[in-house]
Amino acid sequence: xxxxxxxxxxxxxxxxxxxxxxxxxxxxxxxxxxxxxxxxxxxxxxxxxxxxxxxxxxxxxxxxxxxxxxxxxxxxxxxxxxxxxxxxxxxxxxxxxxxxxxxxxxxxxxxxxxxxxxxxxxxxxxxxxxxxxxxxxxxxxxxxxxxxxxxxxxxxxxxxxxxxxxxxxxxxxxxxxxxxxxxxxxxxxxxxxxxxxxxxxxxxxxxxxxxxxxxxxxxxxxxxxxxxxxxxxxxxxxxxxxxxxxxxxxxxxxxxxxxxxxxxxxxxxxxxxxxxxxxxxxxxxxxxxxxxxxxxxxxxxxxxxxxxxxxxxxxxxxxxxxxxxxxxxxxxxxxxxxxxxxxxxxxxxxxxxxxxxxxxxxxxxxxxxxxxxxxxxxxxxxxxxxxxxxxxxxxxxxxxxxxxxxxxxxxxxxxxxxxxxxxxxxxxxxxxxxxxxxxxxxxxxxxxxxxxxxxxxxxxxxxxxxxxxxxxxxxxxxxxxxxxxxxxxxxxxxxxxxxxxxxxxxxxxxxxxxxxxxxxxxxxxxxxxxxxxxxxxxxxxxxxxx
Length: 546
Prior knowledge:
alpha/beta; six-stranded mixed β-sheet; 19 helices; globular; arginine-tRNA ligase activity; DALD3 protein; ATP binding; tRNA binding
């Protein structure tokens, strides 16, 4: 069987299969201390639950090092330890297989290439100026769209931005969102919804009283439909909805997005596999917690007016609150961006002096600002509250858990390879040889295995995990791992920075040192590519300088 790029999941499956246990027994190690002695462990407690007396058959233990497979890591030894069964990987061979083809996103699984997801962000319909709480749901939807596309899923973003207001803050944050007016097809969709409303038994004429909002067409009794259909997860106060032209326009835009999905049969897969990534169009409403009730009303109304299978696939991804500390007055998204940009400029001047005043730094500071805001909004689980501290000293280029720190380390890699290339052009070093000629047995430093085993190896699976939308056990709420990429990049930056500060990569130009230098450069080239691929899901370009 041919050997391909190794993966964590495939290796764990092979290890579990070798022991023939009834459940998953093995775990991947990640801490530097444990990785000095083992790479995978079947804990003693798990073995005791799976085997009488915790005794694994000797023939099963002896068979582990001979495990093979297209995505299985080469294993060196399996032995009994006080902690359980410990396995070590044949590390030079693992370096060779992983660095032979630079790691990037794995090709999407075959069943994940034809699905479609509609991401609906009601915050962009807010008649008032966008606030940080709106920005959180928009940034989350934008990031989720990139993650899904990386897995081969077609994504439609709703609503389209109109020309009636300025969207400068979205452009400044590099949010890629469609714009347009809808045209005649949207008008036809609105007309069809009005006709359906006229036939709807849940709809009734609305008497226009002094407190009735302008533009109300009718009222619809939602509660009776929810109870009749046995729908779960809706607020018990979802009852009577006053339907306006704006309400129908919102539904029409969703209808149009569904029609544009490359799916011919939305009933091809059962709802239980939501969100399907094969042949089913799914709708995800990405809302902040303050909009959730209104979106539930819209959800039920759409189900009433359109009995198509796609309306039954509506799910709600709810963002927790955004608390702003020390605001002199309610702050808008534009003000928030400008404040963070000013703080980033001041922090850069403190760190880099007059250099940061140069015009060439304008784009650098813009990118650092975008990174700071995106990490501030996205590195926390979407269900949790975010607290924005607007004090002048609340942003820094030094903090190890900030977007600026990630961009700084990405720039350090760019500087390293630029320095190497200029040295090659001067004749100081020969060019980097082909991978097949590199000697990866030279990579014996603890940090080198840490970078490969914890970041390069699992990176494709990290992207897959980040794109998963966990189906609810019941109800309409779903969860997503949208914080995964930011946390991955922060941890990668910390471990890379520790290694880079400790190890001198470009050494003296002596031929007997070249083997180790070239192997390290190949490793760091792969690390650089992982940085670039992960940052692309956040619409952040890599920096060549800081």
